[in-house]
Amino acid sequence: MDFYNLALFFITLVIGIFTFYAILMRINGWYYAIKFCSKKYNIPFGYMGLPYFGNTLSYFKSSMCGDPNSFLDFFATRFGPGGMYRAYIFGKPTILVTKPEIIRKVLMDEEYLERGLPNYMKKLIGLTTSIEEDKYFRRLTAPVKSHGLLSDYFDYIDKTVRTTLEKYATTEEPIEFLHKMHRLAFEVFMRLLIGDEVNQEFFDQMFEEITAARKVLGGIFQKLIDERREAMKDGKSMPRANIIDMLLSNTNQDYEANILSDKKIIEILVLFSFAGFEPVALMSIKAILHLQKHPHFLEKAKEEQEEIVKRRASSNAGLSFDEIRQMTFVSKVINETLRIATDQTVFLRDTSTTFNINGYTIPKGWKFFAVAWNIHMNPDVYVQPKEFNASRWDDIETKPGIFLPFSMGPKSCPGSNLAKLQISVILHYYLLHYRVEQINPEARCYPPENCLVKFKKLSL
Ligand code: HEM
Ligand SMILES: *[C@@H]1O[C@H](CO)[C@@H](O)[C@H](O)[C@H]1NC(C)=O
Ligand SMILES: *[C@@H]1O[C@H](CO)[C@@H](O)[C@H](O)[C@H]1NC(C)=O
């Protein structure tokens, strides 16, 4: 009898736990299904996971294993190949988008979707934007993409890359590759951000601060802004255009406040500081390591650089802005590096109003979430997508939206041209004069956070 009761107890317990578990896993979905059951909305099917956490954990799990596919596939297998699914990520009800053409539609919207960074990230960089401010920000910073500003700074970029790589080559001890490349990309970028006439110590200080304590940055920028305002009052202008001066001297009629507050300017500068150098350093290193693994591409890229040097009138002259355009093979190497390295880029947008897309009506306050994986690792566009193959760019038709390292549309990365330019200059000198030798095991260079290398000058 006792045994019978005990067995019954356990069976009840097990059923209870399963029921509880089943309810727990669905309750979030039910909550939102009831909340948005109105005929006004038409939300695609999907799975919203646990309350509060939603699917965030399973997304992180799959992306850390380098395969967001397992996360995305789950929705396609369970809810059909529609390409839009309801989910719950970063604390918000979310529409997961996996079809390239729908991702494109989401990214191209200018009016109703805001840049949807998770709140903790907004707090980290101190962002407080609205759609109006966003548009204004983009207009103000548009020159960063322009041929004018980039060619104006080209000699500076060229000189910095050349002298810095030379310095690495004369260092006896192995260098921490990523850290050193961060420093290089940072220096180039900061000149563009704050202008020419700032001394070297300032750069060193900025770099330490940026890697150590991000908050301190705001204070430094404030001081800089004050100085620059003073200088402007005296009618002194900088020899070359830069972003800080563009922000300070704007008097934009369309914007209600008419002039940006210091707080807003600092916000923009901090955003640019963080967005502007880390990916450039990382992509340069990844390109270098890919080339090292594929000697035939390395050889081909090197020959292209030697041809460029041969065509020069004087063999002493450095690289010129126009020569960048002759680097056709290297630009394939860069595209291929970017394609693979940004396959996990997440695109986020928030709906600022009820939003119609592909026959669905999505409520205000929901998020759109897409991963570049669905595009960059799409075997219909890229044969054997996981392979590094610079030659695939020989015959890829570059239709819009099949390659989104910098996203696309009105909110895409304003630094794309600068980034490609910097990586091209780095690769030019690297290919001609240097090679790296990995000191620690291969595994630590992918990803290259702990990659120790000896930077060696090629003998002539
Ligand atoms: C290879 C290097 C880089 C990559 C892969 C990259 C990629 C991206 C991506 C994917 C976004 C998000 C766009 C979206 O949400 O649709 C972005 C935004 C941004 N990037 Fe870059 N970026 C790079 C270099 C740079 C550089 C050099 C700068 C500085 C000039 C920069 C400044 C920014 C800024 C300010 C934003 C925010 C734009 C906004 O919120 O409207 N990035 N970048
Ligand atoms: C690299 O990608 C860009 C952007 O899609 C494209 O315009 C360009 O033609 C590509 N470069 C090469 C060499 O294929
Ligand atoms: C690389 O791409 C080219 C062009 O698409 C192709 O002919 C070649 O077979 C590919 N190489 C490898 C190793 O897959």
From TrEMBL:
Places the protein is found: Membrane
Residue stretches spanning the membrane: 6-24
Annotated Pfam families: p450
Gene Ontology cellular-component terms listed: endoplasmic reticulum; membrane
Chief place where the protein resides: membrane
Keywords: Heme, Iron, Membrane, Metal-binding, Monooxygenase, Oxidoreductase, Transmembrane, Transmembrane helix
Positions contributing to heme binding: C413
InterPro entries reported in the protein's UniProt record: Cyt_P450 (IPR001128), Cyt_P450_CS (IPR017972), Cyt_P450_E_grp-IV (IPR002403), Cyt_P450_sf (IPR036396)
Co-factor requirement: heme
GO biological process: brassinosteroid biosynthetic process; brassinosteroid homeostasis; sterol metabolic process
Keyword Transferase: no
One Gene Ontology MF term: heme binding
Mode of membrane association: Single-pass membrane protein
Family of this protein: Belongs to the cytochrome P450 family.
Name of the protein this chain belongs to: Cytochrome P450
Upper lineage: Eukaryota, Viridiplantae, Streptophyta, Embryophyta, Tracheophyta
